[in-house]
Specification:
The complex is a heterodimer of chains A (686) and B (318). Chain A is 33% helix and 22% strand. By secondary structure, chain A is of the alpha/beta class. In chain A, the strands form 4 sheets. In chain A, strands 6-7-8-3-9-10-12-11 form an 8-stranded mixed β-sheet, sandwiched between helices. The termini of chain A are far apart. With 318 residues, chain B is mainly α. Chain B folds into 2 domains: 62 residues, no CATH class; 221 residues, MetI-like fold, CATH 1.10.3720. Chain B contains 14 helices and no strands. The longest helix of chain B is centred in the middle third of the chain and has 36 residues. The chains are: A alpha/beta (686), B mainly alpha (318). Chains A and B meet through helix 3 and helix 4 of A and helix 9, helix 10 and helix 14 of B.
């Protein structure tokens, strides 16, 4: 039988361009019930074969949408490309028939998504999901495809790949699932991989592993990578070139080294300034970008960033600046870009000229407000196969917090840090140990004593999207606890107080009648803070209060928390996984791993001179937003996964991943001891 | 998985015990004296009081209630459900001769519902807001709105007026003469299955719509999987989970729940037996029937859970 002749694609033309991917003047609209959202407006960028290009920006800036447009996977029928071209090897993807586009997807271009927990099909085996593109695109036989799948899993560093093929995703951790996603992406040897926030949902040590893996693979296999991220550290560790997006438009383009060394758009400057960094001394306050990104339903006429820009001029508000060549290989969409390059960010007033050292807090070392002694919180779990198991979520934790102090609690997921917070709040009951609050034992109180304790200790939750009741107005949400605890005589008084609290957390009184869905993430988190403040607490447990927020908003919230602490003399337990944020806000830091404390020290001592190998590895794993530094940095990537808390390793819980571990560590459970004055670590090797 | 199965089976015991106790004592709260009803009909005949007393003694109704219960329940534990107070035949026999018919109608209606619901629900979701979706939704809303017995009557009328034929009136077991058997039972199965499929179609539609928003569907598309395989492999299997629940519960309802439809097609099934037993105050028969239906519900729930485990590895490895 004669094979049909393939449709000609003018190969001579296709190979002449040095670019693998060219996005030209892309416009994407979303049709919603409230109007047309211009999600992407005139984005252009190019990618060479084998190169790593980053697309940076905050949520809603259009970075993910533009990449879904490349794959032609925009949500139908709401999302549509209304203008521009996307050339891949010279072919305009937007004009290809559906069937040809499908052939390109997964074979020439693959995509890795943000959420490893939901991006794999739970009812199909891993093997099926990896072999599927091989069978479809390359016409492999089942055996050949399975052999290739084993090879791929080996390549992405998954132990025991042959057995893994017949397993399902619930048996995989987040990091392992992301490895599987990468294996699927690599399956057909694509020329381009688009990775949409590939490490955002992962722990730092796992993030470091995945970043290294992707970088090595793209170099070894000569695959071009488009990395979409909000994390500037990730960009610095990865990317050859950077595209900074803001509110559906391109703000700045250039090589990673150039952009980080001398940003040519005030937004880039702002982004770089507002990230707390491990490689620089801690300033008194985080510099923030004030305000919120514009609503893309009705964007302002001038520069999108103008309303938040400290260097704005009249012209900025009137004219929409185009992306222009402002220096060799540098593009910026700011009319003052050249000026900015000449006088630097300080010259334009984008950053304060003087560096303010943080004032040391005058903490009285007397009776601590909170004193936790040998706290243990265990959970019973009964599962189908194992009849009875105990999770030692918190296993012997002792620390204290002085009045007005902020203690940071860091660790990777599953280390028990959230359980600590919940136990302190008495949402969980302690299995053993003692919690002393203000000199009184609150471990087992109940009834009225518990109620009065709960008034004094409040909580701010991680997810501002799900922790506010969607059917209550902001006013009702804030007023409710005051009425329950009878802190205000009546509804009117509570409402007035709620309005006052709103202004204290940087919101407006009129928002009292709004519903949570009408506010942005940062605003909702402020509501959460106002609700906590309503009780006039002395102690607040902040459980990952900024991890769901964008960088520029994150800085605003951290500053707010610091201001409130000063104003009301609050004491914080700040639970987070982001070491840089913890460093910025904390006076003392507790590092946890699998329910155990690894290290406790004053902030400066801990970050300048971490003693425990786990703390060292954690700090090593965090990418720093400075490409020059990242290149020279010799970071050790911690191998392996966090073991299951159901079955923690014997001896030191960290020995399975520890570079220093030997047989002794498998036998002895290390005690937390004072290695240096006020610096405690639990490691026998010190 | 084995342990899980065993635990689930163990959990059925208290449920069934509760049902047995409830039905036994509630029945005795019902007004009316079964013996009087049996001997005097609608209060017409005049029966001497000593006959009533003797009859009560024969049936054991003169004993204290807990004795009656223990006696009955002891029997049930040994597989003896007692004798119908009206016909004098064993409860097992009375149910047995009708169960085959009722089961067959239920199974056929279920098959019909699945065959209709899975493709229709999926099509409706994929072509959301097009004429295909609108027609399918009209069809399924009609199925919900039209009572099964009415549809049954219409079917009989059409058969009669167009083919001058009515389905056979007596039950022939399937393995004796499948053709004759089907020509009787296919019509009630359609009448019942239509409504049943409508419930499942709507469930399938909303379930597919939800699943199509999932990240793993986007992943499948990004892999370049053919769209029809995206739907058939990646979406439908996930979407079937809630539909399985609906189908299972409806199935259990069909055993003994087809009171009116059985009347229309003149079928001698469990539903009809139920009505008769209640009308006659036939305590032992009612107790047997209720227990039977309860066992069905519990068993089917159990099978749904097992099926869930098979369909969804998340449950297996939790």
């Amino acid at each position: 039988m004669d094979l049909p002749v393939a449709t000609p694609v003018a190969p001579s033309l296709a190979t002449s361009s040095p670019w693998l991917l060219e996005v030209e003047d892309l416009h994407v609209h979303f049709v919603t019930s409230s109007g047309v959202v211009r999600a992407v407006e005139g984005i252009s960028y190019k990618v060479k074969a084998g190169e790593v290009v980053a697309l940076v920006g905050e949520s809603g800036c259009g970075k993910s949408v533009s990449s879904l447009a490349i794959m032609r996977l925009l949500a139908k029928p709401a999302g549509r490309v209304v203008g521009g071209r996307i050339l891949f090897e010279g072919r305009n993807l937007l004009e290809l028939p559906d069937e040809q586009m499908r052939e390109i997807r997964g074979r020439d271009i693959s995509m890795i998504f943000q959420e490893p927990m939901t991006s794999l099909n739970p009812v199909l085996t891993i093997g099926f999901q990896i072999t599927e593109p091989l069978l479809i695109h390359l016409g492999m036989t089942m055996e050949a495809a399975r052999r290739r799948a084993v090879e791929l899993l080996k390549m992405v560093g998954l132990p025991d790949p042959a057995r893994r093929l017949d397993q399902y995703t619930p048996q995989f951790s987040g990091g392992m699932r992301q490895r599987v996603m990468i294996a699927i992406g690599l399956a057909c040897n694509p020329k381009l991989i688009i990775a949409d926030e590939p490490t955002t949902a992962l722990d730092v040590t796992i993030q470091a592993q995945i970043l290294k893996l992707m970088k090595d693979l793209s170099r070894d296999l000569n695959i071009a990578l488009v990395v979409i991220t909000h994390n500037l550290g990730v960009v610095a560790r990865y990317a050859d070139r950077v595209n900074v997006m803001y509110a559906a438009r391109m703000a700045e383009q250039g090589s990673a080294t150039d952009v980080f060394a001398s940003p040519m758009h005030p937004y880039t400057t702002g982004l770089l300034r507002s990230v707390p960094r491990l490689d620089q001394p801690r300033g008194r306050r985080l510099e923030t970008i004030e305000g919120l990104p514009p609503n893309l339903l009705e964007a302002p006429p001038g520069c999108r960033f103008a309303p938040r820009c400290p260097a704005r001029q009249d012209a900025c508000i009137r004219v929409l600046p185009e992306l222009e060549l402002v220096a060799p290989h540098r593009y910026s969409a700011c009319i003052r870009a050249r000026e900015l390059a000449r006088v630097g960010p300080t010259g334009l007033g984008l950053q304060s000229a003087t560096f303010e050292r943080p004032q040391p807090k005058a903490l009285t070392r007397g009776e601590p407000l909170l004193d936790v002694q040998g706290l243990k919180t265990y959970f019973d779990v009964s599962s189908g196969l194992k009849r009875h198991a105990v999770v030692r979520a918190v296993d012997g934790l002792s620390f204290d917090i002085q009045r007005g102090e902020t203690v940071g609690l860091v660790g990777e997921s599953g280390c028990g840090k959230t359980t600590v917070g919940r136990t302190l709040l008495r949402l969980e009951n302690a299995t053993a140990g003692k919690i002393m609050f203000d000199g009184k034992d609150v471990t087992a109180i109940s009834g009225d004593t518990l109620k009065s304790y709960r008034r004094q200790i409040q909580v701010i939750f991680q997810d501002p999207y799900s922790s506010l009741n969607p059917r209550m107005t902001i006013g009702q949400i804030i007023a409710e606890p005051m009425l329950v605890y009878k802190l205000q005589p009546n509804r009117a008084a509570a409402k007035a107080k709620a309005a006052e609290l709103l202004t204290q957390v940087g919101l407006f009184e009129y928002m009292i009648e709004r519903y949570p869905h009408e506010l942005s993430g940062g605003q909702r988190q402020r509501v959460g803070i106002a609700r906590a403040l309503a009780m006039k607490p002395s102690f607040i447990v902040c459980d990952e209060p900024v991890s769901a927020l964008d960088v520029s908003i994150q800085a605003q919230i951290i500053n707010l928390l610091e201001d409130l602490q000063q104003k009301f003399g609050l004491t914080y337990l700040f639970i987070a996984h982001d070491l840089a944020v913890v460093r910025h806000i904390s006076d003392r830091v507790v590092v946890m791993y699998l329910g155990k404390v690894m290290e406790i020290a004053d902030r400066d001592a801990l970050y300048a001179d971490p003693l425990h190998p786990y703390t060292q590895a954690l700090l090593d794993a965090v990418p720093v937003p400075d490409p020059a530094l990242e290149v020279s940095r010799r970071y050790k990537v911690l191998s392996g996964e966090v073991p299951s808390p159901l079955n923690p390793p014997r001896g030191c819980v960290f020995h399975t991943r520890c570079p220093l571990a030997d047989d002794e560590c498998k036998m002895n459970i290390p005690e937390l001891r004072e290695v240096r004055p006020r610096h405690y670590a639990a490691c026998i090797k010190l | 998985m084995l342990r899980y199965t065993f635990n689930r089976l163990l959990m059925m015991i208290p449920t069934l015990l509760g049902v047995a106790i409830l039905v036994f004592f509630l029945l005795r709260l019902m007004p009316g004296d079964p013996v009087a009803m049996m001997l005097m009909g609608d209060g017409g005949a005049n029966v001497p009081p000593h006959v009533l007393v003797e009859e009560r003694a024969r049936l054991g109704l003169d004993k204290p209630m807990y004795v009656q219960f223990l006696k009955w329940f002891g029997g049930v534990m040994q597989g003896d459900f007692g004798y119908s107070m009206w016909t004098g035949k064993s409860v097992i026999y009375e149910i047995g001769i009708r169960l085959e018919l009722s089961m067959q109608v239920a199974v056929m209606a279920t098959i019909l519902a699945i065959l209709l619901a899975l493709p229709l629900g999926t099509l409706s979701a994929i072509y959301k807001d097009t004429w295909i979706d609108h027609s399918i939704r009209m069809f399924s809303i009609a199925g919900l709105a039209v009572p099964s017995f009415w549809l049954g009557m219409i079917i009989i009328l059409l058969l009669l007026s167009n083919f001058a034929w009515i389905p056979p009136l007596t039950f022939t077991p399937f393995f004796e003469d499948p053709w004759l058997n089907l020509s009787q039972l296919i019509w009630p199965a359609i009448a019942v299955g239509y409504r049943y499929s409508s419930v499942a179609t709507r469930m399938m539609r909303s379930s597919i719509l939800e699943v199509m928003q999932e990240d793993y569907i986007r992943t499948a598309r990004a892999k370049g999987v053919y769209e029809r395989l995206v739907i058939a492999r990646h979406a439908m299997r996930n979407a079937m989970l809630p539909v399985v629940t609906v189908i299972g519960l409806e199935f259990a309802f069909l055993i003994g729940g087809l009171v009116v439809t059985e009347q229309v097609f003149n079928l001698n099934g469990i539903g009809k037996l139920f009505v008769q037993a209640v009308a006659r105050g036939d305590y032992t028969l009612i107790q047997g029937l209720v227990l039977l239906v309860a066992v069905f519900f519990v068993l089917i729930n159990f099978f749904i859970d097992l099926l869930y485990g098979l369909l969804d590895p998340r449950i297996r490895y939790r």
